[in-house]
Amino acid sequence: MTGEWQLPAEKPAAHQRRLFLIDGIGAVVTTCLLFILAVFEPFFGMPGKILYFMMIPAGIFAIYSITCYFLAGRKWRMLLKGIAVANLLYCLCTAALIVIFYEQLRFWGLAYFLVEIVVVTGLACIEWKVSVTR
User: Fold this and answer.
1) Are 57 and 29 in contact (CB under 8 A)?
2) Which residue, among 26, 40, 131, 34, has the nearest Cα to 85 in the 3D structure?
């Protein structure tokens, strides 16, 4: 015992748990939209193989977040930080793909990815803030 008093880890409140659900639903929507972009590759410009590959982490994030929504217990802060970091890494990868495939991207493809980066980064910042706020 170090003599320091610590607050016991608490279970997430409803509004904190809801972030997992929002993230999970968003990841499902992203997965579906990436499939649509792949089907209409000529209209959006991002190569279909890349879009199918991007669906993998989006699907994993969906499963992770929805599972956390139902099962998050005392370690919810760590789990929320995890998805926040994963979301930011996803956005960095998306930004890199925009740069790599910029010449091929059509207006709507570029618009989709830029909006996705803004939305997911905003959500990740909220998740991080909630996870570190007592």
Assistant:
1) no
2) 131
In this predicted model, what pLDDT tens digit does every residue of 7-17 receive, in sequence order? 455 777 888 89
Distance of CA 104 to the CA centre of its chain: 25
Q: How far apart are CA 69 and CA 62, in angstroms?
A: 11
Q: What is the DSSP-derived secondary structure letter of residue 105?
A: -
Q: How many residues does the chain have?
A: 134
For residue range 68-78, list pLDDT tens digits in order.
Answer: 999 988 899 99
CB 130, CB 79: distance < 8 Å: no
What are the two backbone dihedrals, phi and then psi, of residue 102, each rounded to the nearest 5 degrees?
Answer: -55, -40
Backbone φ/ψ region at 45: left (φ over 0), alpha (ψ -120 to 50), beta: left
Q: Are 69 and 21 in contact (CB under 8 A)?
A: yes
pTM over the 0.90 mark: no
pLDDT by residue (tens digit) across 53-90?
999 999 999 999 999 999 988 899 999 999 999 999 99
